Amino acid sequence: MERFRSDKRIIILFLLPAFMIYLALAVIPIIQSLYFSFFEWPGIQGIPLEYVGLKNFINMLKYGDFHIAVKNVFQFAILNLLIQIPIGYGLAILLGGFPKGYRLFKTAFFCPVVLPLTAASLLWVFIYFPNVTGVLNLLLKSIGLTETGKAWLLDSGTALNSVIVANAWKGLGYHMIIAFAAIAGIPNYILESAEIDGALGFKKVRHIIIPIIWEAVKISVVLIVIGSMKNFDIIFIMTEGGPNGLTNVPSTLLYYEAFQYENYGLGSAISAFIFLISILLSTVSMRAMRREKIEY
Amino acid sequence: MITSNFVTKKKVHTNISKIKLNNFLKYAVMSVYLVIAIFPIYFALISSVKESKDIFLSPFSLPSELHFENFVRAIKIGNIGISFRNSVILSGGSIIVIVFAGSLAAYILARFNFKAKNGLLVFFISGMMIPMQSVIIPLSYVFGKFGIHNNYMVMILLFTAFNLPITIFIINGFLRTIPSEIEEAAVIDGSGAFRIFSQIIFPISLPAISTAAIFNFINIWNNLLFPLVFITRRDLQVIALALQSFFAERVSDYGGVMAAIVLSILPPMIAYIFFQEKVEKGMTSGAVKG
Known about the structure:
With 296 residues, chain A is mostly helical. Chain A has helices spanning 2-5, 8-36, 55-62, 64-96, 102-114, 117-127, 135-142, 159-184, 188-196, 201-212, 214-230, 233-238, 250-259, 264-288, and strands spanning 39-40, 50-51. Chain B is built from 14 helices and no strands.
């Protein structure tokens, strides 16, 4: 048995396909992308890369659109946290007592998560349609909140927040499920004895449930923050970074710079930035939320 | 004595009405969010069979007549038919390669003993951290060099590379919960490693493999970025992009676009409705490692 379990031939043979594919198309490219950020390349085959040192990073840091994109991505992350966590966890707490029909509700809450982001984004474009033909405007008009309607995605004041709401709608069910799994794992006697001790309603949620499922909250926060840094599709479809580049995030800016304007050097610097910032933020947010582990 | 009894009774009474009120509030809140969660999907379904002008005139009501021509236009003019097929080929092909390479690797990493084992597991799993947009520039450079844009084989391997980490994570985690004795008899009988893998390990891991496969399917079906950058030929386009270009090109054919949206959400929705537990488990498995 020991000989079988340490047979080098089998080990290498079985690991080889996964190792080669993963190395060639994920690991080497990510290292290359860091390397590329020190070079300039006009995007034409046959023209060699030209070493430019830190020039791409300096250009990036001086670039006004990049400042906007970074501000936007943080706004995106923070507002998504503020919408998705309370609502997602709130719904999970409501479902946590397994009320009648909870499966139906859970399924419905999770549905948006499995939709293709392209389809979901286009649906929200229809909802945000300008003037009173748009669904949202029609709704607001019917309750007397507006006469003319708003051009939600074309107005620089509302465009980014409108996209954020659509994104939160899409992602929230995911965190509802994470929270639900954690809450369902709390032994019944803990909740019962808490109730006997007088911990009811919000008190129970705050002092009993939240501390026990803190690990799940941490994971949700990290996932939302990293997800926001990587987010591309929803902005690309809903606003194309507009109006006037005001809703760009680093990932859309990277795409437009590299593949529309052929600034591959600047694009590479931005992609290095995205990679490093997601690693940094996930470590920071894990640390910031460190708490004593609850034993019971 | 009597008074105290009375007091407790009253207290019980208020508690019951409080519980009733709580219950009512609970369902009210959940129902409101149910409508919010479902409305856009309902909106897509009813609008996909309406005439374009009716979609915005009465966005909430059921269609008065069924206009299935919307679907015909989406499939023929909107390129949705071909791109639907392309998405099936691409996600299906990727899943086969992912499951093959991923389960072989997961088996070794869960069961065999060698020095680099734990390091390799971390090496694979940390791939979940790699943002897709950080690799598009170097890959585009390399693909251009070798002339392999618009190549499905390359796309399949690319999707495999990005979905292997989670797949290995899921299957490896599952295999660690299975006692290692199950292969011992076969090893003593002198069966080869391939035989043990295909006749014992693979069938036993099917629950984990199918969880990973469904999760990967939804991921790849929904992916926009890689096809956007690496596929330029219209006849090779995937559905997520065909949808976007249909919307951009035929600005006022809302009925057709809605039909196209419905066609694109159908496969992941069906997968979710039939394999609910697996989808939920697969999607959150990367999150609940604790």
